[in-house]
Amino acid sequence: MKLREIKLNNFRNYEKLSLEFAQGVNLIVGDNAQGKTNLLEAIIYLGGGKSFRTQKAAELVRLGQEYAELEGTVFSQEREQTLRWLFFPEAKPRQLYRNGAKKKTAGEISGVLQTVLFCPEDLMVLKTGAAARRKMTDSCLCQLRPNYEAALTEYNRILEQKTRILKDRFENPALSQLLPDYNTRLCQVGALLISYRARYYEGLKKAAKSYHSLFSGGAEEFTLEYKTVSTVNDPFAPIPVLTEQLQEHLFTHERAELESAQCLTGPHKDDFDISLSGMSLKAFGSQGQVRTSAISLKLAQRDIMANQTGEIPVLLLDDVLSELDPGRQDFVLNQITEGQVFITCCEPGRFTKLGKTIEIFSGAVIGTQ
Ligand code: ATP
Ligand code: MG
Description:
Layout: E1 2-11, E2 14-20, E3 25-29, H1 36-48, E4 68-76, E5 79-87, E6 95-98, E7 101-103, E8 115-118, H2 121-127, H3 130-144, H4 146-168, H5 179-215, E9 222-227, H6 239-260, E10 271-276, E11 279-280, H7 281-284, H8 287-309, E12 314-317, H9 326-334, E13 341-345, E14 355-361, E15 364-368
Parallel strand pairs: 3-13, 3-14, 8-12, 12-13
Antiparallel strand pairs: 1-2, 1-4, 4-5, 5-6, 6-7, 9-10, 10-11, 14-15
Residues 36-37, 318-319 line the site of magnesium ion.
């Protein structure tokens, strides 16, 4: 899929913009606070009706204006399509049009313009606690597999109810009788989650490894390891085997769960570890290595989505070049030859051999080449 053109009216700091894009790489260059990330935000909103920076659509409307409008022409699903959004600073419902026809929900345009974004906050995901990494995995898997999303929703619901029972049983001991049923279902659904995750990580690892190798000029060997409940020795095992292994682990932690009133075991504690040439990225990775790994993961994620839908999502790389050495910068700018890519940077003089350079100043394009 390719975004051919975008038109903005009163979006963030853009009063009016009409811009055509290259099929390959679009490099958006400008000083700080000129509107580079705003433009990526507009592209993401166009395709999915959501911003990665705010929940409040009102913030997207240019200050003091009565409405904002976003319009884009996309080539996808073998034809040219238009998407148009209108939204308002006050609590008035937004409007969405696909090829001129009014639509009610963003779900009705899903698949027209899919995006994968790398933003600097993604670097933290690889460095901080497991919760952020689980969230990243879950949000991608939910997009790919509706059955996964259903299982995850059920798992979280049981987990929440079980936690409440563990807490309330101090006052009402009879509640403990409910626990075995909850545990059985938790292990059954948990086994499903592990099975999906194992397959997802397998694909992600393979693709990210080959991107990372190209990116680092073969200097580093990327590996990714799925970490789950310790009694699970093979996450690809059949669901009944996984269920039994989860039950086994739960059994040995039953007492601790009762004492702490917390759900201590299960795939809600899962994580993944990345190593570069045998060194843990989380513990020892340099800034450039973390960045290289995070971008390789995004490229891999895009490949997995493309395999699923037959369309390569648009890749958006916000502020990627800093901290990268010239070889790695060259990879980002000149070697991602598949699909359409948008890259923002504030280093003047950068250009791409694969498309177009767009210079932004104060919410306007001041040059293209
Ligand atoms: P950096 O290189 O620092 O990341 P950037 O070019 O990506 O900069 P953006 O985040 O795109 O910068 O733009 C930020 C600017 O947009 C803010 O400084 C603000 O002035 C302006 N802005 C954001 N929202 C609005 C709005 N609703 N109305 C008017 N201007 C806005
Ligand atoms: Mg920015």
